[in-house]
Specification:
The chain is an alpha/beta fold and about 350 residues long. It folds into 2 domains: about 150 residues, Rossmann fold (3-Layer(aba) Sandwich), CATH 3.40.50.1970; about 190 residues, Dehydroquinate synthase-like, alpha domain (Up-down Bundle), CATH 1.20.1090. It is built from 15 helices and 8 strands. The longest helix has 21 residues. The protein is globular, with a radius of gyration of 20 Å. The structure holds 1,4-dihydronicotinamide adenine dinucleotide (NAI), 1,3-dihydroxyacetonephosphate and zinc ion (ZN). The site of 1,4-dihydronicotinamide adenine dinucleotide has 32 residues, from α2, α4, β6, α6 and α11. This is Glycerol-1-phosphate dehydrogenase [NAD(P)+].
């Protein structure tokens, strides 16, 4: 008997373009969100966009409340939940990079309230996804969360953000190549459920970004447009899969482990990009496509070496050899790499 079921939860409104921040209230009214909005932002994004969002809701007599968050942690999610309860929030808006958006998303899920995503950087593909990702102790939790009901991505703001944030977003997309390979491997070896649609969408998104790499240039607002569209597409792939599998494989395990060993050394996207070079080597060998991954990253100006990430060789080796421990997700790392094999992979690919 056929007994499969699936829920694909996607945003109603994805508003992207020049100056669309000023349409935040309209995007919210269009989907009939009601009650008091709570704006959740980290400090810089608050001054870059949050203040304007608050002013817009004030002009609309919506009585907005606000809370500033610093780090992606369960404590931060808890404090947003408390604030939301104390101000009797009707829905939450996450304004910022991946961390502020994840915190607001997870708090909204816990509160059973609507969530709106207002990215100020094209730095990660959690903008649209129904996943929240925060570290806890020695592990990383990627939890099913309330996906955004609306997304407001103003390319003027994204283009004015530091360029490295945009190259990090590109690298997070390029890492889909290895993430999908890991997912397929887990399907073949461990019978993990695989979605052709989600896998193909994630892979095709990476391919289109690489094909457009020549148009992704600092100072061009069109670059932010290209990158944010790819980030949306990758987030949709995660929603279709109801898992971060289409966009997160061993390269993400490596990055999550770096976050523990060398906190704040580099951006998420940059770490997964370098991880991808090495895990592609593990998938396809010395003459394999790791060279294409490295060249794609280099062409948009994303880091390709440990030096460029600002970490030392031993940190790379420690992260590679322990990455498999961070969560129960089967990848090309299997049950762990030996130090000699990790050194070989990192050296052949020029990462160390
Ligand atoms: N939930 C999901 O599906 C996904 C979650 N993530 C998570 O997202 C996080 C990474 O996101 P990032 O954005 O790289 O880190 P982040 O949120 O820490 O932002 C990086 C820095 O950029 C600053 N920033 C943001 N917009 C700015 C602007 N317009 N001008 C100046 N500075 C600005 C922030 O204040 C912060 O200091 C990680 O925790 C990662 O696990 C990443 C991908 C997918
Ligand atoms: O970063 C992500 C996808 O790009 C989310 O994946 P995780 O589930 O590994 O946090
Ligand atoms: Zn990522």
């Amino acid at each position: 008997m056929f007994d499969k079921t699936s829920w694909i939860r996607l945003p109603h409104n994805v508003v992207v373009g020049h100056g669309v921040l000023d349409q935040t209230v309209a995007a919210v009214e269009d989907i009939h969100l009601s009650g008091r909005p709570l704006i959740v932002a980290s400090p810089t994004p608050y001054s870059v966009a949050g203040e304007r969002v608050v002013a817009q809701f004030e002009d609309a007599d919506a009585d907005p409340a606000e809370v500033i968050v610093e780090e992606a942690s369960f404590e931060a999610v808890e404090s947003v939940i408390e604030t939301a309860r104390s101000v009797d929030a009707g829905y939450l808006l996450g304004v910022g990079g991946g961390k502020a958006i994840d915190i607001a998303k997870m708090a909204a899920d816990e509160l059973n309230l609507g969530f709106v995503s207002v990215p100020t950087a094209a730095s990660h593909d959690g903008i649209v996804s129904g996943r929240g990702s925060v570290p806890e102790g020695d592990t990383r939790h990627s939890v099913a969360s309330e996906p955004p009901l609306a997304v407001v991505a103003d390319t003027e703001i994204l283009a004015e953000a530091p360029w490295r944030l945009t190259t990090a977003g590109c690298a997070d997309i390029i890492s889909n190549y290895t993430a999908v390979r890991d997912w397929q491997l887990a399907h073949r070896l461990k019978n993990v459920e695989y979605s052709e649609y989600a896998g193909e969408l994630a892979r095709m998104t990476a391919e289109m970004l690489v094909e457009n790499a020549g148009s992704i240039k600092q100072g061009l607002e069109e670059s932010s447009w290209i990158v944010v569209k790819a980030l949306v597409s990758s987030g949709v792939a995660m929603s279709i899969a109801d898992s971060s599998r289409p966009a997160s494989g061993a390269e993400h395990l490596f990055s999550h482990q770096l976050d523990r060993i060398a906190p704040d050394a580099a951006l998420h996207g940059h770490q997964v990009g370098v991880g991808s070079i090495m895990t592609e080597y593990l998938h396809s060998g010395a003459k394999g496509q790791w060279i294409d991954v490295r060249d794609a990253l280099a062409s948009i100006g994303a880091p390709t070496t440990a030096d460029e990430l600002g970490i030392d060789d031993d940190t790379v080796l420690e992260a590679l050899t322990t990455a498999h421990e961070i969560r129960d997700r089967y990848t090309i790392l299997g049950d762990g790499m030996s130090e000699a094999a990790a050194r070989e992979a990192a050296t052949v690919t020029g990462v160390i």
